[in-house]
Amino acid sequence: MKALLVAECRQGRLAGEYAELFGFARALGAATSLVLVGNPEELPGFDGRLHFADAREYGEYSPDVHKRLVLKAVEAEKPDLVVFMHSSYGWDLAPRVAAAMRAAQVSEVSGIGEGAFVTGCCNGKMRRTVRPLTPRAVLTLQPGAFPAGTPCGSPEIIPIGTSTETPVELLRYEPPAAEGIDLSRAEVVVSAGRGVGRREQVELVRALAEALGGEVGASRPVVDAGWLEHGRQVGSTGQTVAPALYVACGISGAIQHVAGMKGSGFVLAVNTDRDAPIGEVADLLVVADLAQFLPALILKLRV
């Protein structure tokens, strides 16, 4: 099995998620090579073949140009898989590359089956296993789904080039509008999930956060239901947090949520389901009814 990994450059810096590409390749047991349109002063360290194009000439992102550059590396390596991160870069470029290769494309891969890949569906509420029917496939990886690898060494650099003709020009990067809630600085985050049951129960989560001197977070279903504002969402489509203590209240543990809190120091999960996926990442899983457990815990903390 051969995998061509596609790294990404953002504002002159190598995107740190590229190490997760190596984590995926290691889990798959695949031989790897890498392609990057980036900064020649900041190259990834690994022992392998790096197909490189200078972003100062080809741009940090230009869909048609980057597609042609990736296809140059595909032609040279003849990989079984071409693998992107599921970032704005990956989700835009991967389908273009797949169409040009006439290959299957699987988005947001979060696990590996036997000759197949696990991915989310139904807005992340369910998982499915997908088996590509073409000899080669193009994948995007769900951020946080695979542990970062530790690539090191000096790559063999192979220059690649193509025409710079394109109808699209990258003008600038625009950061998302600030919403006034920065959970990334909180030492304690207490998050509410669908399992809290109803809007009124969110107040128990808020009371626990206050007792711990922390901030209130939320999973996507809670935000979608309007129980908490979007600025408090933790996950791949919300904020990424790394507090000393993360308390997950009624959160199932979907990979999209876990991706946003995987750097937490200690994870306490409270759930009525002892088999909930959140138990796989929690340091301590309390199997209990939130309506009974949280008031008792708050009372102890306030004594």
Task: Record keyword descriptors for this entry.
elongated; 9-stranded mixed β-sheet; 2 domains; alpha/beta; 26% strand; 26% helix; Rossmann fold; 16 strands; 303 residues; 5-stranded parallel β-sheet
How is the secondary structure organized here?
Blueprint: E1 2-6, E2 9-10, E3 13-14, H1 18-28, E4 31-38, E5 49-54, H2 55-58, H3 63-77, E6 81-85, H4 88-101, E7 104-112, E8 117-121, E9 126-130, E10 137-141, E11 156-159, E12 188-192, H5 202-212, E13 215-218, H6 220-224, E14 245-249, H7 255-261, E15 266-271, E16 284-287, H8 290-302
Detailed description of the structure:
26% of the residues lie in helices and 26% in strands. By secondary structure, it is of the alpha/beta class. The protein has two domains: 2-159, HUPs (Rossmann fold, 3-Layer(aba) Sandwich); 183-302, TPP-binding domain (Rossmann fold, 3-Layer(aba) Sandwich), CATH 3.40.50. The strands form three sheets. Strands 9-8-7-10-6-1-4-5-11 form a nine-stranded mixed beta sheet, with helices on both faces. A five-stranded parallel beta sheet has the order 13-12-14-15-16. It has a two-stranded antiparallel sheet with strand order 2-3. Strand 12, helix 5 (202-212) and strand 13 (215-218) form a beta-alpha-beta unit. The longest helix is centred in the N-terminal third of the chain and has 15 residues, at 63-77. The protein is elongated and about 65 Å long. It starts with a strand and ends with a helix.
